[in-house]
Model the fold of this input.
Amino acid sequence: MSETIEKAIEKVKEPNEPLFSPKNKRLITDPLNENNPITIQVLGICSALAITVQVKQAVFMSLSVLVVLMAGNFLISALRNLIPSRIRIIVQLVVVATLVTLVDLVLKAYVPEVSEKLSVFVGLIITNCIIMGRFEAFAMANKKWPSVLDAVGNGLGYGVILIVVAVVREIFGSGKFWGIELFGSASELTGVYGMGYMNNNMMILPPMALITVGIIIWIQRARNKNLLEG
Amino acid sequence: MEAVNIFVKGIFIENMIFAYFLGMCSYLAVSKTVKTAVGLGAAVIFVLGITVPINYLLENYVLKEGALSWMGAEYASLDLSFLSFILFIAVIASTVQLVEMIVERFSPALYGALGIFLPLIAVNCSILGGALFMQERQYANIVDATSFGLGSGVGWFLAIVAIAAIREKIQYSNIPAPLKGLGITFIITGLMGMAFMAFMGIEL
Done:
């Protein structure tokens, strides 16, 4: 008798999955390339492009999104059975808005100069489609740990593109990397500038961010034929 | 006069799409045909024109430092601006819901045209962006703030209708396969942005 009960309990117990099973690993690696939030799913471009003039801003922006996404995915996944589906969008917005307020205050306190440059774009993380998209598509239907991994994957996938675009724009646009002058001083004509090199000022203007992302998409799809659009 | 300047500035010089990339997600997703683009664009103008003034009142009479002084001297030193994200997004989400219900009740024709786009708009970055820019730029009065909201909306409308028209035309052109679809849309938007930069020298 007791044996059958034990067996029944064992059946009810969910199989214990290792923390980094192959399925969970894919949650992190997929968004980095084949299912990248920016270049494939086309989400979160809103606040992404405007802050890629300098690498430093891009890094802090990616970190903020990563933190908000991880905490948000965890919370939504924990609350998923309590949220009435009719008002879920408003609940999700309130969760993100609270987290973003926290991130904004932390940035203002510890890196005020970055916070100044990011201006309204920190607030716009609230309406970043990646976050709402992951809440809807993943956290509302999955357990906490996979949701956190999914958030890490998507946050990193977003960050990678942001940082690549920022590196290209900062090096060619202002001849700097993380604020350090690479080719000598542009105003005093030292280093490479002395030989007639000039910064491409077009790179710091908004349109070039779009064109840079367009070219990244081109390269990615040329290397991976599965991603081609019909 | 200032209000007219802000309106024109919002359309051309500080265009939501080309200068700040706001609302790019729906801009890319809903720009396949001109008809749907016009619908979504009109809904954005509508919602921006309503939410920016509401958020302006909220900012100036509730959130800003000293804004609560109308309630009495003891409230004059309160600064609630840390609540602005939550309140703005709550106002936007509920306004959109309210507008949807009112339009459905009083103008079924308009509801037919805008209806499906309204829920999409609550999470459109350009709406929250409008509210946050309004807060950052501190417009002098509610007329200026409203004309900023409407101007940004018209600018967004212009951008999405233009890209939809171009995308309809290039559908059958011979573009390198990896660049088809998303890639070429990005590059065209970049080129359109360069064209719009010609307005940047205008002093208003």
Observations:
- Chain A has one domain: 44-219.
- Chain A has a mean pLDDT of 80.
- Residues 44-219 of chain A form one domain.
- The radius of gyration of chain A is 22 Å.
